[in-house]
Structure formats: structure tokens, C-alpha cells
Amino acid sequence: MTRRDVLIMVAPNGARRGKEDHPAIPLTAEELAEEALACARAGAAAMHVHVRDDKGAHSLDAERYRHTLKAISHALADAGADLVLQITTEAVGRYQAEEQIACVRKVLPEAVSLSLRELVPDDEEKSLNQARGFFRWLKVMNIVPQFILYDAKEVARFITLWRGEKGEAGSGIIPFRRPFLLFVLGRYDGEPARADMLDDFISALGEHVNDVEWMVCAFGPAEAEVALQAAERGGHVRIGFENNLQLPDGTQAQSNAALVQATADRLKAEGFTPMPAEKTRQLMRACVR
């Protein structure tokens, strides 16, 4: 019996890993386009896209983003496939909030991931006003934001910024009635993720757990196990080389598509259905209202 649809987003490269970490990590527009098609066929409905500069370093260059998104879109369209394409604003120690915001304004993507701690680093009036204006612009432009949260404390701060003094959804500086969240479990150079780490995030949401859409990504080999736990608890999943290089059996994955396929198979075995791209687009657009 089918239980519900679960959105699988693939994060194929991230900001830090390179060919020395895995020869199949896609870095160029052409490699990302090829990987996007393979992942769509394996069960992904969305793709979290990072671009790199000529030396392979993380970049928020708008022209590189436009070129890469165009290449991916053409490859998908030529094959009759589809993915929601989400860019990142990740700072990686290189960019300030003003530069992150400027990138999104220039690229005009369908969706974007935003680190709350980077875009709203403090509660000073300048930071709050800048974030408020940007978030309202995203809403006007119908660009779907996904707010990246790293621990329960950040979840609590998000709720405050989202609900404001009135305590109503969208009445704070974050104006979305049903926002889209990403919970990050584990760390790139620290403790790997465990499924029980999800408990703290869910507890921090408290009474608002059904008022948001949420997704998890997990650093390390427990990625697929965490994905299943998220599905069981009403969430969605992000899979890929940005966070993990290993299949559920502990062997190295040959590609991002292999990771997506393994997760999709595991979800289907438990009665879940990988959400198709068009339904994903509808779900995500509801998060920008």
C-alpha cells in the first residue's frame, strides 16, 4: 500500500569536494547536466546546484549559474525529463550577505537555499531589515526559498523570525505562511549523522511540525537510514555527494544517481513513492505564498 509521496532532492557536488574525493563528482555545467538527467531517471525530482570557478572553487557568480542552469534544463528537456533546480547562496567563508542576495537577484532561479545564520547573522536592525526586504522580494518574484538550519537552537530562532510578535505564520521578517526547511544532520569535517539526531529538530518545531515542509540531509554513510526516518516522520530527503559518498551497504557509490536509486528503492520498499517533479514544483510553490 502506498503511504505518501516523498520528495528526493539530489545535491551532486557541494562547495568543497573535488575529483580527488571522487572522480565522478560533477563540477562543470556539462557534467552537472549529465548527472541531472541520470538522477531524474533514478527518482530525484529536484537538484541542489553549486557552481565552481575556473580553479574548481565555490562560486556565486551569476553568469556561471545562468550558464549551468541553462545546460541542465536543455539536457532534461531534450530527454523529456524534469527537475526543480535550486541554487545555493552558501558563503563558504567567501561571501557576505549582500553578495549572496545580489547573486539571487541576478540569477532569478526557480528555487534557492538560504542559510539563516548567514543571511540573518544577528538581531541588529540593519540585518533584520536587509533580510526582511530580501525575503519579501523572493515572495513577490515567486522564488522558492529553503531555509537551512543546523541545530534545534536555529529552529527556535527561525520560528521567532517567522511568526514574529503576533505569533502568526508569516507575520515576522520571514513572510511565508508555510516555509520550506532543511535540517542538516552531522557535519562535513565532524561527527557523522545518526538517525536519532532528527529528534532534536522535530522537538524544536513542536506544535508547528505540521505547519512547515521540511527535508533532511545527512553527512556520512547513514544518509539512507536518515532519509527513511525522515519519510516516516513526514519529511523529505536530500541525497548526494555533497554530503555522502557511500551506498547503504557501505561501499562507495559510483555516482549520485546510484545514491538516489538506492534511496528511492528503500523508500519504495517501505511503501513510499518518489515524488514526481511536477508535484514537487506544486509543493514548493505553495511554500512561497
Can you walk through the features of this model?
There is one protein chain. The protein is an alpha/beta fold. It has one domain (5-286): Alpha-Beta Barrel (TIM Barrel), CATH 3.20.20.70. The protein contains ten helices and twelve strands. The chain has helices spanning 29-42, 62-78, 97-107, 116-119, 125-141, 152-163, 198-205, 223-232, 256-269, 277-286; strands spanning 5-6, 8-10, 46-49, 51-52, 58-59, 84-88, 111-115, 144-149, 180-185, 213-218, 236-239, 273-274. The chain has an eight-stranded parallel barrel, surrounded by six helices. Helix 7 links the parallel strand 9 (180-185) and strand 10. Helix 1 (29-42) runs parallel beside helix 9. The longest helix has 17 residues, at 62-78. It is globular, with a radius of gyration of 18 Å. It starts with a strand and ends with a helix.
